[in-house]
Amino acid sequence: MDMQSIGENAGIVWRLLNDGKRWEYDDVRKASGLSERELSAAVGWLAREGKICFETDTEHHKDFLFLSLNIYY
After folding, report:
1. In terms of C-beta density within 10 A (0-12 exposed, 13-18 middle, 19 or more buried), how is residue 51 classed?
2. 43: Cβ–Cβ under 8 A, 6 or more apart, which residues?
3. How do the residues of the chain divide into helix, strand and coil, expressed in percent and rounded to 5?
4. Cα–Cα nearest to 38, from 72, 5, 16, 60
5. Contacts by residues 27-31 (CB-CB < 8 Å, ≥ 24 positions apart)
6. Residue 22, exposed/middle/buried by CB under 10 A (0-12, 13-18, 19+)?
7. Number of Cβ within a 10 Å radius of residue 45
């Protein structure tokens, strides 16, 4: 895995999350076709860029991902 492939995988994840809903982590993994390692690197890339948000439902033990909304004035 190199920076190029991580960036490309981040694009795959971003396009999935661009539908405006909260995705369960496992659903993103399945829909993207990425391995656990590839998805983790892609999510890290998006998190570092401030493009992704995380939410945990502790009651149901689920992790959710969704795009963050950046508003610039």
Report:
1. middle
2. 10, 13, 52, 65
3. 50, 20, 30
4. 5
5. 28/65
6. middle
7. 19
Q: In 1-73, which ranges are continuous DSSP H helix?
A: 3-17, 25-32, 36-48
CB 65 within 8 A of CB 54: yes
CA dist list (Å): 31 to 27, 47, 51: 6, 19, 19
**pLDDT tens string 12-70:** 999 998 888 888 888 999 999 999 999 999 999 999 998 988 888 888 888 887 877 55
Helix (H, G, I), strand (E, B) or coil at 6: helix
Between residues 73 and 8, the one the model is more confident about: 8
pTM score over 0.90: no
